[in-house]
Amino acid sequence: MLAKGPCSFSHVSKRLIPRLGCCQRRWAQVHDVRFLVTHQQSDKVTEKYREKLQKKAREEGLQSVNELKSAFRAKIQAQKQSPATHPHPSSPEQASVSTTPPPPSEPLSTTSPPSPPSAPPPGLKTLSSYLDIPKTLGLPQKEIEYVWRLRHASHPSSLCATIPTPTYHNIESTARRFPQFILPLPRPNAGAEIHFLQWSFPTPETATVLFTHLAEYKLRGEYSQPHTTVTWHKELKEAKGLVLMRGEVMSGRGMSVEEGKWLLMCLQKFYGGEGSGRKELVERFGKGDEGFKVEELVEEAEKIM
Helix (H, G, I), strand (E, B), or coil: what is residue 293? Predict the structure, then answer.
C-alpha cells in the first residue's frame, strides 16, 4: 500500500497540471469521415483491378485508366437513372405465364377424422378375449350373466361378477375422485389385516383395481406385487345395462380366493356408498383428512359380515 505524504500522487499531480496546461498545443485536424472512407475504398478497388482496367482501356482505344473512367462515367449515370428492370428468366418454363386459373381448392374440413381406438396396454385383456361381443349383444341379460359365470367356473383362482350399470357408475364416480383406499381383512384371533387398493383406467372400456398388502406397499411402493387383480369390462354397459367383472387371486401371495372375494365385496360397499359413513371414510382418506381413523374403518367393515 502506498503511504500518503508530501510526495503522494495527488500532491504531485496538482503541481504538474498548471505546467502541462501552459505547454499544450492543438495539432489535431478535422476530416470528414465519409470522405476518407469512400475515397480510400475507391483507390483500393482501382489498385486491385488496375491491370484489368488498363487492358480494357487498350481494347477501347484509350490511353489510360482515367480516360476509361471518363468514357464510362456517362454510361454509368444513365444506367443508374433508368428504371429498374427484372432479370430475365433462366428457363422458358419460368418465362411462361399461365393464364389458366388454378383449380378451386377443396374446403378444409372442420372435423378431424375419427382416430382409431388405442390399443390396450400389454397384458391387459379386453372383453373380446373372453366373449364374442356381437353374439353376446343378441342375448338377454340373464343369459349373459350365466355365460359369464360359466366362462370362469373352471378357474379356481378367478373372481367374476356382473354389476348393473347404475351401480357401477356410482362406484366409478367415487373411484375417479379417490382412486386409493385401504380395506381391513379380519383375521381370526388376530384383529384385522390392512390392504391397500388402487384404481386405474387404462382404456375407456376398462378399469382395473390392484390389491396389495399395506405393509408391502409401505416397504416397496409402486414396485410392490399385488396379490389380487380385478378388471371391469364396460363394453356392454349401454346396450345391455351390465358391467362384467373378472379378477384373479395370485398364488403364493398369502391370500385365498375367499379372502379376495371379501375385499372385493368391501370395495363395492365402500365405493358404492351403501351405509351412512362408508363413502365418507373413502373421501376423508383420499383428502388426507387427519380425522380419518382406522378404528372407524374396521367397525364399518364388521357391519358387512
Answer: coil
> Rounded to whole angstroms, how far apart are CA atoms 302 and 290?
22
Q: How many Cα neighbours within 13 Å face the side chain of 6?
A: 0
150 neighbors 255 (Cβ within 8 angstroms): no
Q: What is the pLDDT of residues 31-40, one digit of tens each?
A: 443 444 444 4
**How far apart are the C-alpha atoms of 171 and 161, rounded to whole Å?**
14
The rounded distance, in Å, linking the Cα atoms of 164 and 151 is: 19
The C-alpha cell of 5 is what?
A: 505524504
DSSP code of 147?
Answer: H
Of all helices (H) and strands (E), which one includes residue 112?
A: none
d(CA 55, CA 194) in angstroms, rounded, equals 104
| The C-alpha cell that represents 260 in the structure block | 379376495
| Coil, helix or strand at residue 203 | strand
User: Hey, which bits of 204-241 come out as E strands?
Assistant: 206-213, 228-233
CA 240, chain centre distance (Å): 37
189: left (phi over 0), alpha (psi -120 to 50) or beta: left
Residue in the block written with cell 478497388: 45
Question: 191 phi and psi, to 5 degrees?
Answer: 75, -130
pLDDT in tens, 222-237: 899 999 999 999 999 9
pTM of the model: 0.60
The single residue listed with the C-alpha cell 343369459 is 143
Does an H or E element contain 259, and which? helix 257-271
